[in-house]
Amino acid sequence: MNSVKPILISKPKQPISKLLKTFFIIIHIVYGHDYGFVKYKSTRHKFIIKLSTAVFSASLATVLLILISKETEELQNVIWFSSYVFMNYAYIIMLLIIPERNTFYILQEHLRSIDSEINADTSSYFLDLKILLLLIITIADKIITTIVYCWFFGPCINNIFTQILFMIPCSSLDMPIIVYYFLFHATYMRLITMRKFINDRKFKPKQMQIIYKSLHDTVENIKNAFDPLIIFTLLTSVPNIMIIIYIAIKDTKEGKKNVSAFINEAMIASLIMAKIFAPAIGASSLSTEVAKIKVVLHDMLLLEEDETKIQDIKRFISYIEARPFKFRVLKVIHLDATFPVAVLNLCVTYLIVILQLTHIY
């Protein structure tokens, strides 16, 4: 399906909070991740900011790679630390090339526009607070996990300054997937409000169909823009899970791994799986809520006597059936409840093959 540029249905009554804007601008400055919250005065200004972000991030990555190679003793640790730097820079570039009309900031504007149409109180969703808390917790978790691992279980970068500098790419890798999850969660909250609004029987079917279309167009466009980041996350996270499990099995078999280290690595693997499964679970909840909206509309047909409104409701139902909020990543990977099963099945299959080839068992 071709990308359709959605338009704001009406001017949002409630602006995006200054706290959320400030937080994402800080993320842009510190991590180089551009989610659209920095507003550009002109095309030239946008080019300068984006180029500066790319160049500064590349310079920081180069310096960090040089320091890691000098101050890390084993080659496998140099490769492991360097992979975080490369992955973060890949995220920076992919976020910088996302069109301005498809950023996370634009999603917030469109959702607030829809709230104005259905008389919803944007602040009642507490989405700003949820986003801020989850991002802060994720950054803190990465920092604490790295400190604990380096202190108790494994060798780390010798120089404390380099270690602190390394925390910039290390703590930022989960941000794109969290933002991707909130794309679906924020939409889910609007669908619930839409269902309640329809259930009050004071809505106009044609107007509600336009709102539904606008919501679908916005989510689809921004999801498509973020798809390359999700594919990249899968390509890096799934092998990471398999490596962690393989090393844990191998060390347990050889008697090298104590219980605390095993628990620590099991927690890391579980957090990675939770991270990559969250968007699929969030996306699957959308189709469930859409099905509930269809039931409400069908119930209304039983009571409605106005023939014109009946036809409008039927047309709305047909449109929902044509666009039911079911998504795929790059038209290949289904974002629904089958996604975690498919990933786990892939991990288990290839893990068995690796164990057989390495003759551990």
TrEMBL record:
Coiled coil: none annotated. It is found in: Cell membrane. InterPro entries: 7TM_chemorcpt. It is a multi-pass membrane protein. The chain crosses the membrane at residues 48-67, 79-98, 131-152, 164-184, 229-249, 261-281, 337-357. One of its GO terms (biological process) is sensory perception of taste. The keyword Cell membrane applies. Keywords: Cell membrane, Membrane, Receptor, Transducer, Transmembrane, Transmembrane helix. GO terms for cellular component: plasma membrane. It comes from the Eukaryota. Pfam families: 7tm_7. Gustatory receptor which mediates acceptance or avoidance behavior, depending on its substrates. Belongs to the insect chemoreceptor superfamily. Gustatory receptor (GR) family. This is Gustatory receptor. It comes from Euphydryas editha.
